[in-house]
Design goal:
Distance between the termini: 72 Å
Structural class: alpha/beta
Low-confidence stretches: 1-42
Largest sheet: 8 strands, mixed
Helix content: 10-25%
Radius of gyration: 26 Å
Shape: globular
Length: about 550
């Protein structure tokens, strides 16, 4: 189809036609055309996609959310000009299963070992990024991809995927100590994310749309303790979550966490500026989120709010009305079908998805709850680190509705944060990892919690009456079911399960959860082997623990 634009003395005529122009002009039209021009009708430009995902960041920790000790101008711009989502839930409270859910559109329990921490990625679990590449997108990534997984090491690994499911890392431009090293803390990863993004963009063929996965390794631990002091941060600005004691140790640890979030945001800001300077910004869907919650006790590796509730902001002014705050429940499993729909890419080739596109929410002009039919999101976990006898996990399944969260602890006899003591060379280590001097050794106990000043403080002060409740929140065994009103109790401290006044909502959520697990064929519920998750090979350090 082409356009003929003809300019006459008092009349402009635009005629659309499908015949060759010479045939059209030879026909007897009865018109005298002057200054005719032929214009080719162009297809709408396909959107670019920049997906920025931090590593271990809970939902309140952006300045847009009102956090006073973290400054995130990059996130704030996307949230302020675009859509800020108040209720986004990761696929799991751990990196690998959560990222698996994001790229496949499936719950981690549907992806066998390719949905589990430190296991292998099988060829059949095709990420949506592959389909974008087949559809003409220039794809690539910088930093952490879909991991930690083991990918094919050689041709002998014929059933394994060869490249990271987050895309190809086209370059590896890194900071070098002493040579223009601007990193703000020694714990920050050496990858120069923005420089790698710029290299990726320069290698793109003119006119090709792009998909770029910016996977920061921040604010994953380890942190440089006290890095916040160089950055001029103030302990009095910190809001300590209610599941942690409020003291200088915890506040300092949170400020070191803030330094690394700001590093992630710095490179995001540079990418935004680059796109703006090159005229690409308004044709780029920018998504900013995190894979799971903060690496602190009772957060990461737990299905509480601070473990699975993550930040989310999306900007695309061409199609998404901006300056909105949306309260709809969004799952990581919803990302893949949404991005395929927005790019006009078929799902053919991928395994059936459990997530649902939220394009209707993105394109709406409404704030608040946009889609009243979207009532629930689901998440879960299995093994995280090697933390128990025989490397057993702590299986959880979770359902969240608009006010309540229900957590099903399928093996409540196990320690949720890992065994309280380890073994080394057959020798039993001290309880809670406390050595003779009273110092905590993080490898000796509760290994599902990242080593940190916060973890050590709780362990070293576990006999202090003021600290005992916080210690128990983080490390003690839990009942089979936990129910929390997360609107009133975002720290998930008051378990409402079993209370008569909450019986109706608890039964409703249990039914909805079981029905979803049956529908999605969760082996924990439908078999044939409910313990299959414990059998997948674990490609990381295996610690030794006594039998629980």
């Amino acid at each position: 189809t082409s356009l003929v634009t003809c300019h006459m003395s008092h009349l402009n005529i635009i005629i659309m036609y499908k015949l060759p122009l010479t045939l059209f002009l030879s026909a007897g039209t009865g018109f005298m055309f002057q200054n005719c021009q032929v214009q080719k009708k162009t297809e709408p430009q396909r959107p670019n996609i920049l997906l920025a995902i931090s590593d271990d960041q809970s939902f309140p920790h952006t300045s847009f959310s009102g956090c006073k000790f973290i400054h995130t101008p990059g996130f704030d711009r996307i949230a302020g000009e675009g859509i800020f989502f108040t209720n986004c839930y990761s696929g799991s409270p751990g990196s690998a299963p959560s990222r698996s859910s994001l790229v496949t559109g499936r719950y981690h329990w549907q992806n066998e070992q390719s949905g589990q921490h430190f296991s292998s990625w099988m060829n059949k679990y095709i990420p949506f990024i592959d389909l974008l590449k087949q559809n003409g997108y220039h794809t690539g990534r910088a930093g952490k991809g879909v991991s930690p997984f083991r990918y094919a090491q050689s041709d002998n690994d014929s059933l394994w995927r060869k490249e990271d499911a987050g895309g190809v890392e086209h370059s590896n431009i890194s900071y070098t100590e002493g040579e223009n090293d601007e990193r703000t803390a020694t714990g920050i990863y050496q990858n120069n994310y923005f420089a790698n993004f710029q290299h990726f963009m320069e290698k793109r063929k003119p006119g090709d749309p792009f998909f770029f996965w910016y996977g920061a390794r921040e604010p994953h631990r380890i942190y440089e303790e006290g890095s916040w002091k160089r950055m001029g941060k103030k302990p009095e600005d910190v809001e300590v979550p209610g599941f942690l004691p409020d003291n200088d140790v915890i506040r300092g640890d949170l400020l070191d966490y803030a330094v690394e979030i700001e590093w992630f945001d710095l490179h995001l800001s540079r990418m935004i500026q680059y796109l703006e300077e090159n005229g690409e910004l308004d044709n780029t869907i920018i998504i900013v989120t995190a894979d799971n919650g903060m690496p602190f006790p009772r957060a990461k590796a737990n299905c509480f709010e601070y473990g699975v509730h993550v930040p989310l902001a999306i900007r695309f002014p061409r199609q998404f009305p901006g300056k909105r705050v949306v309260d709809d429940l969004i799952s990581f499993a919803d990302f893949a079908p949404t991005l395929l729909e927005l790019t006009g890419t078929s799902q053919e080739g991928m395994l059936p998805m459990s997530g649902k596109s939220f394009t209707n929410i993105l394109k709406s002009e409404k704030s608040g709850v946009v889609d009243a039919d979207k009532k629930y999101v689901f998440a879960g976990r299995e093994r995280h680190s090697s933390s128990r006898w025989k490397n057993l996990g702590y299986p959880q399944r979770m359902i969240r509705e608009r006010q309540y969260i229900l957590i099903w602890n399928l093996r409540p006899d196990r320690w949720p944060a890992g065994a309280p003591r380890a073994k080394e060379n057959g020798k039993l280590m001290p309880l809670y990892g406390i050595d003779r001097s009273g110092r905590h050794e993080t490898e000796w106990a509760f290994a599902d919690v990242d080593g940190s000043p916060s973890k050590s403080f709780l362990a070293e002060n576990h006999k202090n009456p003021e600290i005992i409740p916080f210690f128990d929140h983080a490390f003690a065994k839990r009942p089979e079911y936990e129910l929390y009103n997360v609107v009133n109790d975002p720290y998930c401290l008051e378990n409402l399960s079993g209370r008569p006044e909450h019986k109706q909502i608890e039964e409703e959520l249990k039914t909805k959860l079981i029905n979803e697990l049956i529908k999605t064929e969760d082996p924990r519920v439908v078999g044939p082997d409910p313990e299959i998750f414990e059998t997948y090979k674990y490609y990381s350090k295996i610690r030794e623990f006594p039998e629980e």
